[in-house]
Structure formats: structure tokens, C-alpha cells
Design brief:
Length: about 325
């Protein structure tokens, strides 16, 4: 048999592999990040605990006080013990987790939205608008964030009325905390988005879009912004953890979400007085905050690696 006759058979033995889609490549990269997978599983379990737990007992049981069992240690009836006024910590952790996660997601969404808008406008148009927006951004970055949150919480936390939503009554301070954390969490992302826009707006595809008379808003939304999605998604993910931690800070200092609405942060407010005598007041709630922050950070790291085009797919 000649070489020319054998060659086709060799090539016939190699199966044709379909090209990988972008979504599949992102999933393959994310799947290699073991800690990100662990973080994603933990986050799913936390959502099941917080939102699924509400199906088994009403919120009234989480807020019910019974001073005859105040500071009771963990038991079969009260798995996480009770607080200084006899409320069940397990039930409050369920409903407190709902509010903490809601605050984290809402505040991160608000912060990302502002950061994307400011960064896009500054990076695309440049000139005096860029100078104005960046000076405001840098001025806010120069002030310690926790200081700004405490000042705003002191003046605004009790200025919002209670809110009725999905059959539940939320303290108006929840709205105030979301606004405060969201308004203080956009500056870093704005600088990242601006830098991406400054780089991308000089590319040939943007020049071609301008030459064909494409409006500026369409160039921003359809041509440049999709190419900056990676840092935006990562910032949004990590922003949730940052918002939950920020709420915990100010609630622990007594200026956060007001009772009777429970959050993981305000459940820790008076636990420092019982660090030795009733450690269950802070152990369980602090553990939820810890694993939530770690899990979100792990997932954020995994998303960052998955969206990196230079990452290997195998």
C-alpha cells in the first residue's frame, strides 16, 4: 500500500470535535476552581436554609420573646440557644439571613449600576466630564468608607418608613442601609470600567461603528460595555460580600437595621456583653457571616478566572 492510500485512513480515525461555545469554556474554567465550586454549594445551602426555613415556622416565632428562657444554651428545642430576651436564635438566624442576603444583593446591584454608568460616561466621553466624575470619585475614595457609613447611618437610618413587601413588614432602616451601602460602593468599579472604556474605545470596531453613524449610546451599550462584562460580574459578586459585611459593621455598632427586623449584623449587637457567659449568641451568627463572606469570595475568584480569556480550557 502506498503512502498516498494510507494517509486518508489515518485522518479518518481522528474524530471531528465541535468547537466549544463561550458558555461551555467559561463553565470548564470555573469547574477547575475547586474552592469556587465549594463556595457555590455553600451559597446554595445558605439560601435553602434562609428561604426554605421560613416554610416551617412563621416570622412571629422568630420575634416572640419569653424571658423565662432567656440566655438558654443550645438544646433540642432551641438548637442555637436563646438571646437575652428569650428569642430563639435559630429562627432569628433564618429570617436574619434573608434580610442580610437581601441587603447584600440589593446594595451590590445599586453600587454596580452607579459604577458602570459613571465609569462608562467618564471613559467614553473624556474631557471635562471625565475630570469632573473622577474628581468626585477620588474625593469619596479618600474618605474612609466605614466612617461615611456611620455618619450616614446616624442621620438617615430612622428617616425611612416601614415597608410592606410580600406579606412581610420590613423596618424602614433596611431601605436606608441598602441606599447607604450602595451609594458608597461604586467608586472602585467606576475606575475599572473607565479604564476599560479608555482602552476599548480606540479599537477598530468602535471606529467602524462611529464611521457608520452609530449613536453614542448604542456604541456604549452594544459594542464596548459587553467587552467589560468580566470585571463588572466579579465586582458585583464581591460587592455582595462587602455589603453584608458593611451592614454587620454598622448594625453591630447599633446604627443599622432596627428591631424587630432581624439581620445577622444586629443579632451580634449585644453579644459582646456575653462573650464568656453565653458564647452561642455570637458563635452561630458569626459563623453564618464568616462562611457567607468566604463563599462569595471563592465564587468571585472562580468567576474571575473563568472569564479570563487567557485561562486554559483544559
Amino acid at each position: 500500500m502506498s503512502m498516498s492510500e494510507a494517509a486518508p485512513k489515518v485522518f479518518e480515525q481522528i474524530p471531528d470535535k465541535p468547537p466549544l461555545s463561550i458558555q461551555k469554556m467559561i463553565w470548564m474554567r470555573f469547574r477547575r476552581h475547586k474552592m469556587a465550586l465549594v463556595g457555590a454549594v455553600i451559597m446554595v445551602l445558605l439560601f435553602v436554609f434562609c428561604f426554605g426555613g421560613a416554610l416551617f415556622f412563621p416570622e412571629a416565632e422568630a420575634n416572640r420573646t419569653d424571658t423565662s428562657i432567656r440566655l438558654a444554651p443550645p438544646s433540642a428545642e432551641h438548637p442555637f440557644g436563646t438571646d437575652p430576651i428569650g428569642r430563639d436564635i435559630f429562627r432569628r438566624a433564618v429570617y436574619g439571613g434573608q434580610i442580610s442576603l437581601l441587603i447584600g444583593i440589593s446594595a451590590a446591584f445599586l453600587g454596580v449600576s452607579i459604577g458602570v454608568v459613571v465609569g462608562s460616561l467618564a471613559g467614553y466621553f473624556g474631557g471635562w466630564l471625565d475630570s469632573l466624575l473622577m474628581r468626585i470619585t477620588e474625593a469619596l475614595l479618600s474618605i474612609p468608607r466605614i466612617f461615611l457609613l456611620l455618619v450616614l447611618a446616624n442621620f438617615l437610618s430612622d428617616k425611612f418608613p416601614d415597608v410592606e413587601f410580600a406579606g412581610r413588614t420590613y423596618s424602614g432602616s433596611v431601605v436606608g442601609i441598602v441606599l447607604m451601602i450602595g451609594l458608597m460602593g461604586w467608586m472602585g468599579l467606576a475606575r475599572i470600567v473607565r479604564a476599560e472604556f479608555l482602552s476599548l474605545k480606540e479599537n477598530d470596531f468602535v471606529t467602524a461603528a462611529r464611521a457608520t453613524g452609530t449613536p453614542n449610546w448604542e456604541i456604549i451599550l452594544k459594542h464596548i460595555l459587553p467587552n467589560t462584562i468580566a470585571p463588572i460580574v466579579v465586582s458585583a459578586t464581591l460587592g455582595v460580600a462587602d455589603a453584608i459585611l458593611g451592614e454587620s459593621y454598622i448594625s453591630f455598632l447599633g446604627m443599622g437595621v432596627r428591631a424587630p427586623t432581624a439581620t445577622w449584623g444586629n443579632m451580634l449587637e449585644r453579644s459582646y456583653a456575653y462573650i464568656d457567659t453565653a458564647p452561642w449568641l455570637w458563635i452561630f451568627t458569626g459563623f453564618f457571616i464568616l462562611i457567607t463572606i468566604l463563599s462569595i469570595n471563592f465564587v468571585g475568584d472562580g468567576i474571575r478566572d473563568a472569564l479570563d480569556p487567557r485561562s486554559r480550557t483544559a
